[in-house]
Amino acid sequence: GPCTECSCSSGKETNKDTSNTKKKENGDRPFIPKIFFGTRTHKQISQITRELKRTAYSSVPMTILSSRDYTCIHPVVSSSGSNRNEMCVELLEGKHGKSCLYYHGVHKLSEHHALQSAHRMYQAWDIEDLVSLGKKLRACAYFAARELMVGADIVFCPYNYLLDPQIRESMEINLKGQVVILDEAHNIEDCARESVSYGVTESQLIAAREELDSMVNNNIRQKDHEALRGVCCSL
Question: Average pLDDT over the chain, rounded to whole?
Answer without folding.
Answer: 83
